[in-house]
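note to self: dont lose this again. the chain is below, predicted strucutre after it. 121 aa total, dont forget to put it in the shared folder this time
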Amino acid sequence: MDQRHKNKNFKYHLIYNYIYYIYLYINEVFFMAKQIRKNQFLHSPTLSTVLMVEDTLKSGELMSVAELKRRLPKKVMHQTVHIILDYLQQSGKIIIGTKGVLWVYAERKELDTLIKKGVEL
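---
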C-alpha cells in the first residue's frame, strides 16, 4: 500500500469515529431527557381529585375520557386525568379500552357490614 492510500483510510477512519461518537452522545442526551420527563409530573393529582374521578366512574357505564372530563364536578387538567386513569388501571379498578373507560371493581358490602359490627381491639 502506498502512503496516499493509508492517509485516505486514516481519514475515513477518523470520520467514522467522529460520527459514531456523535451518535452515542445524541442517544445519551435523548435517554437522559426521556428519564427526566418520565420522573417528572407537571400536575400530580390530590386524593380528593382521585376520589372525584372514582365516584364519576362508579356510575357503571362505558364512557370516553372526554365524557369523563365533562361529567366531573370540577375541571381537571387532561394530564392529571390520565395519571389518575393509569393509577386506577394498575390497581385493577378500571379497564381502558378503545371505546372508553369502564369501572370494574366490585366492592364487598358484606365485609363492610362485618367491619361495622366488629369490635375494635
